[in-house]
């Protein structure tokens, strides 16, 4: 995951968003399996810490990339980078779920567009 952000952090964020969208378009079955696993973890509190640890393997590099994008643009993030990364990931997962039942409302590129809005907001905060 870290190699995804080795160069241009903004481009890395774009790639991870596009990859998520591409995966959804190739196989929506992964989403059902993911939610089944998540429900299993929720019902078993003893597994939650391990799940969070695994989940952070994606979130921490995204947070680092957000920090780099903010630094490159000379802006202060509106919240902690990890919180923004978690919120962004949750939005992507939620949009993927909504797309399964509302494809007329949530098209395949909505998550990418929302990611662009986040990056545009970071850049807008200059000065």
- Rough outline: globular
The radius of gyration is 15 Å
Mean pLDDT: 82
Number of helices: 5
Largest sheet: none
Feature tags:
single chain, 127 residues, 5 helices
Topology:
Layout: H1 9-26, H2 29-43, H3 45-72, H4 81-101, H5 110-124
Summarize the structure.
The chain is mostly helical and 127 residues long.
Explain this structure to me?
This protein is mostly helical and 127 residues long. The chain has one domain (14-124). Helices cover 76% and strands 0% of the residues. It has helices at 9-26, 29-43, 45-72, 81-101, 110-124. Helix 3 crosses helix 4. The mean pLDDT is 82.
